[in-house]
Amino acid sequence: MSASNVTKLLQDWRAGDRAALEQLTPLVYDDLRRIAARHLKTERAGHTLQVTALVNEAFVRLSDADVAYEDRAHFIAIAARMMRRILTDYGRARRSQKRGGAEQPVTLHEEIARAADEPAADIVDLDEALTRLAAFDERKSDILVLHYFGGMTYDETAAAIGVSPATVDRDLRLAKAWLANELRNL
């Protein structure tokens, strides 16, 4: 199916046509699963959300969002951001539990073993760093999110943001360096 047909289905879905959603889902589902798998790859082992659950949660939130999807690339970009938000919400909830909310007491040995399994920078730290980057350079933050978390190519990212692929390359290199420095200083 052509990109214009996907765009038409997105518009029909937003207008309330449930049949359009049924036709649209198989056309974008593999891309959404790829994005979700990429997001979850950076998460700790044993994360409670699985790829399918993350895709389904994103679909639920996307259906409630008041967004006029311009085209397939725009939809995928919004979905990638939505998945990041979902994982950030889960990360924040987990952090609050680690600080006493609904946790059972554990021994120091168990806590050290659990901490060793967690990545150095969790999704909440990453989200906070990306939010700081967006505060002074939103385009670089968007490019980083779309390329790494959305799995978009330079050309797809350029189309979604409205810049050239060369600008995506330049901004991505700067954003990666800035982000690495931020996460190193945590």
Overview of the structural elements:
The protein is built from 9 helices and no strands. The chain is globular, with a radius of gyration of 18 Å. The chain has helices at residues 3-14, 18-41, 51-64, 72-98, 108-117, 123-136, 138-149, 154-161, 165-184. Residues 106-116 have low confidence and may be disordered. It has one domain (3-184). Helix content is 76%, strand content 0%. With 186 residues, it is an all-alpha fold.
What topology does this entry show?
Blueprint: H1 3-14, H2 18-41, H3 51-64, H4 72-98, H5 108-117, H6 123-136, H7 138-149, H8 154-161, H9 165-184
Helix pairs in contact: 1-2, 2-3, 2-4, 3-4, 6-7, 6-9, 7-8, 7-9, 8-9
Which keywords apply here?
single chain; 186 residues; 76% helix; mainly alpha; 9 helices
Mean pLDDT, nearest integer? 79
Report the count of strand segments: 0
Low confidence ranges: 106-116
Distance between the termini: 46 Å
SSE pattern, N- to C-terminal: HHHHHHHHH
Outline type: globular
Rg, rounded, reads 18 Å
Q: Which strand-content bin applies to the residues?
A: under 5%
